[in-house]
Amino acid sequence: MTDMSKTGPLNPSCEFDPNEDKIREECGVFGIFGMENAASLTALGLHALQHRGQEACGIASYDGKKFHTERHLGLVGDNFTGEDPSERLPGHISIGHNRYSTAGQTVLRNVQPLFSELHSGGFALAHNGHITNAYTIREHLVEKGALFQSTSDTEVVIHLIARKKSGEFIDRFVNAIRQVDGGYAFVGMTQDMLIGARDRFGIRPLLIGRVGDSYILASETCAFDMIGATFIREVEAGEVVVINADGIRSFTAFPNAQCRPCIFEFVYFARPDSIVSGKSVYQVRKRMGRRLAQETPADVDVIIPVPDSGVPAALGYSQETGIPFELGIIRNHYVGRTFIQPTQQIRDMGVRLKHSANRSMIEGKRVLLVDDSIVRGTTSTKIVRMIKAAGAKEVHFRSASPPIKHPDHYGIDMPSKDKLLAANYDLKAMTEMLEVDSLGFLSVEGLYWAMGAEERIADAPQFTDHCFTGDYPTPLIDRDREASGESKQLSFLVEVA
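User: That's the sequence. What structure does it adopt?
Assistant: Structure tokens below.
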């Protein structure tokens, strides 16, 4: 889900938090049907998915007579704790959403689930991902008189449903998503059904679980674990599922769908304890570290992960080589992105606010740092300097993913190509810029090996890996129209929260 007003209407990823050097996934979604106090379980599910979006959260429910919605800026734990959420949001059906804005400030009107009163009744919708032709569709709809209340690409789908007045609701929903492109997972609800949908390549994840007689939709299996639910299966690429009192029905929105899930779920986004595409995220990340050790060995005394995302890969590297693994960097989990940084001097302290060197594990040693990826390299450089200041004799750096050379257009908060380190410098230059004794990356072939694939099939890649290869599975209509100058500038309200 993207806010198109933040950085210009057509390229929501053109800006990046200057104090953050990690890529970020947009959102997490959750839905449940057939359980009393559904909103309470939704809140718990969102707690488990908090890593997917930390700027805003919302829940919608239906109690048999009325829809209820509650949306907030901030964390789930800050807004849906204390009093039972079901007291405020009663009902047996509920959906929820964690949000990351692509860049800039999150405002309440863009917080999901979005709710609209359609001629067939109320409809709430939550979305993870990015619609790559949203601006083009929005432009056409505005010309036809549509009134948009948010700057979210999610609202485009609601308008498309509303404009098709004939047919059953699910037929209108399927018709709407057939008009949009990109990577997305939708969870929606009406007064009598829960709806889940996944894009035709299955780029963004969506899974089905069950607790008792109730069915659940969620972005990751960790949400099922939180509430004691059982994982059933993934929503297939191009599939729409409808859950109601009669059970589950499946519809094929895209008959020629080809499953190419986002490989960054394994590199970084998903929680290590989740199962994605039938694979343990934790085990895949350890395999990345093993293969990294085979491809880019280093003569060092100790292996240190960059916390927390570098830990599994560093463990794999250590187990493959026999070199000791140590927690040489301690992370402060209580320093958030909202920390006030009024001066350049204080901004330069950013990593030290989040990370501290464990000198006893570093001093006098040749150190190998392992991280999940390198984006711009700014944080990596600061960490290297911190390790050197703690007395390291040598500092080497390894990335458990291939070089990131291309921006994302499917819901990942990532800088533009001119700000990606590996897109603009060769290995020698990057080594010098990061101030390390050696630098190494996992190969694309090694990443596929870690995923259990013998090789990457060039003509039909098994995963969405465009950030490494430049192979985008869908048309990037909005981006291309912007580049050609064909797009019409629309006005977007900049709201002060």
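The CA atoms of residues 288 and 447 lie 6 Å apart.
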